[in-house]
Write a structure and sequence with these properties.
- This protein is globular.
- Helices cover 33% and strands 18% of the residues.
- The mean pLDDT is 96.
- Strands 1, 2, 3, 4, 5, 6, 7, 8, 9 and 10 form a ten-stranded mixed β-sheet that branches.
- By secondary structure, the chain is α/β, with parallel strands linked by helices.
- Helix 3 packs parallel to helix 4 and helix 5 crosses helix 6.
- It binds zinc ion.
Length: 242
């Protein structure tokens, strides 16, 4: 007899909410990336820095915001400006991003400035300053942090930061910043859904080969500082293609 699993897919919104509830139950406090910088000298005993990259779907980010609202936690949502896949100022997307900011979430810039510089022949610094200005004005916010998007150009947007500091641009942090004021990747336990159908993790900056345990399974180990990166695009109600 053939058996079909009743719950074949792992990355459902409901499953993710269950993960978050388990981690809250394990005594973790969630915070944004900017709050991590501000509170780094006196962090809670168990901390999760809650990061969401919006690579493709703002609509799915709204669903994550609803989950966080039910749980009473905050996140940093990183928004792209130049994506082919979404316009952050479309009627729906502006409404959603504004609502996330109004709910107390941090909106960060998901940077593609190395790609911009290569495609447009403009200095990357100018692209960054303009993009920060645009986001501040468009959403009535003050961008405090940047996370570099990994796209399809073959260039690495993180390379921009090899010889520059976030404070040169009025920022608190870059999301992979190694300065002592951030240094989260090196000091924390990083769990990410960036492979879409499975989790991966890095222990203080080093990939843990073959460890596909979920965010909540890692939290059960009691890591004092977890850097969680999820992508809105990864989650669905019934299946990925809905
Ligand atoms: Zn991205």
């Amino acid at each position: 007899m053939n058996t079909v699993p009743t719950k074949p897919f792992r990355f459902t919104f409901a499953g993710l909410e269950t993960e978050y509830r388990a981690v809250l139950g394990a005594g973790y406090e969630f915070m944004t990336c900017a709050d991590f910088v501000r509170r780094k000298a006196r962090l809670p005993v168990r901390t999760v820095v809650n990061r969401v990259d919006i690579d493709y779907s703002v609509a799915r980010a709204e669903r994550l915001g609803e989950i966080f609202g039910r749980l009473g936690i905050k996140a940093t949502f990183f928004v792209r400006l130049h994506a082919r896949e979404y316009n952050p100022l479309s009627f729906e997307n502006y409404r959603i991003i504004r609502a996330l900011a109004d709910a107390g979430h941090e909106i960060g810039y998901h940077s593609e400035i190395v790609d911009c510089a290569a495609i447009w022949g403009e200095p990357a610094e100018d692209c960054l300053r303009r993009d920060i200005d645009l986001m501040n004005r468009a959403f009535g916010i003050r961008i405090q942090g940047v996370a570099s998007h990994g796209g399809m150009t073959g260039l690495n947007n993180l390379d921009f930061w090899a010889d520059r500091r976030p404070d040169e641009f009025g920022l608190l942090y870059e999301a992979y910043d190694r300065q002592p004021g951030f240094n989260l990747m090196q000091e924390g336990f990083y769990v990410s859904d960036s492979e879409w159908t499975r989790w991966k993790c890095y222990d203080r900056g080093r990939l843990v080969e073959g460890d596909r345990r979920s965010f909540a399974e890692h939290a059960a180990d009691g890591h004092p500082l977890i850097y969680l990166l999820i992508h809105s695009d990864t989650y669905f109600d019934r299946h990925f293609y809905e």
